[in-house]
Amino acid sequence: MKGEEALEIETFFDLSDTAFADLYRGVEFPWEVLKRIPDLIEDRIRAGVRGDVARGAHLGERVQIGPGTVVEAGATIKGPAIIGRNCSIRSGAYIRSDVIIGDGTVVGNSSELKRSLVHEGAEIPHFSYVGDSLLGRGSHLGAGVKISNLKINREEVKVKIGDEAIETGLRKFGCIMGDGVEIGCNAVINPGTLIGRETLVTACCSLQGYYPPRSFLKLRQRIEVTDRRDS
Asked: Which residues are 169's β-sheet partners?
């Protein structure tokens, strides 16, 4: 796939099946959507709770909770944030600023989100970090998946497609994960990673760069078995 095709929105998302299609209009590169998240929240937010928020959950002042959504005791939504309908925000979840969560999404124990758009039906159920990222409809993070959004040298994140490195202008940028992507437990997704729709990633992979739609990414390791020696 050519570089320009790899960066098309359709490589990652079906915009006919999301409430967030307007965010993607007119962008040259999909990561430009990250800059639009705060403005979309300002335009759409109607702070208030229409779901079921348990006593012991903490909500900031600028938080919108949709009908049918359950926020369990011990969850924190700092805001500004928009949480859609019929979501499950479980105990220990920490949702920071500038987060939009689509209908039917799960955010679970010890999962932290900041400045991200999570499309409808995505699942982030256990021990994950999602920062400065776009997660597609029906995507799923296995337990312990970490999306790194900052390079170790704090420099601008560049997107690598083949031999080409594309400047993003962003110091913080995690990943773009397409619709239906499945990530195995304890995988690490490095800054600026692009994962096409319906890709499967096995446990403990460390990802960087671009992966086309419907890929299957496997980590191969060699385990040596010897006799046990007691001291």
From this structure: none
